[in-house]
Amino acid sequence: GWLAREEWLYARRDPARSCLLGLGDDIMGTLDAPKNPGEAGPEATARSAPFGLLVGWEPQLVMQLAVECAAQTHGHPTAYLSAGAYAVVVHALARGESLDAAVQQALALLAGRPGQQQVTDALQHALGAVRQGMPSPGRVEELAGDGTAEGLLAAAVYCVLVGDDVRHGLCLAVNHGGPSAAAGALTGGLLGALHGETALPPAWLAELEGRPSVLVLADDFAMEMTQGPALHGPAGSSPGWLTRYPRA
Q1: pLDDT tens across 90-125, in order?
Q2: Domain with 124 in it
Q3: How many CB atoms lie within 10 A of CB 184?
Q4: Which of 4, 54, 62, 90 is the most exposed place for a label (fewest CB within 10 A)?
Q5: What domain count does the chain have?
Q6: Per-residue pLDDT tens over the stretch 108-117
Q7: What string of DSSP letters covers 181-215?
Q8: H-helix or E-strand containing 236?
């Protein structure tokens, strides 16, 4: 497909060891036997946002898909449940809910799941931190903690809740002494779902590597999710679509 010819995608970008190990063989992880069962990092959470864009699906299924995908690389319950919670929050935002309502929906879906308490506590901590004075790098670091998935999820929720706008929220997420790359990625996903691309500073977009390809892929994803039956009829998938995405 066309993505295979995008040279910028082949750059080595310091992938997490958990991702290399989890995706390095043909064995599928499951929730009963996840890959890397001790891995609680944020990488699976950061990649779970697209599940939230399945706006026509029920939030319970969105969470389950994100959780099962996360278990391929991050087998600790706090990691895969953070991924599921993040996808649900994005899903609610994409459907027009407020961030507070989106977090409450994620909390409701987490309830009763084994291993959810740390994720639940982190999200509630983020909501409570909003009322504890002016936002600061120290507050973001305190929420992020030691860089596990639930702490960075909490930090991202906090940065979006207290940010005056997209620029302020993103700057809060990255200008501190903790794991700023993951915090920025998670915060950016939430801000994008809330405000869309047009809210981003144009000067930042001008510097974005691969932006034309990302825009095309986003449009194609939206077409697949909204016009799937027209693309994949009884006689088979559209030849042009199969050329673009051979495994569709």
Answers
A1: 999 999 999 999 999 999 999 999 999 999 999 999
A2: 17-200
A3: 22
A4: 4
A5: 2
A6: 999 999 999 9
A7: HHHHHHHHHHHHHHH-GGGS-HHHHHT-TTHHHHH
A8: strand 236-237
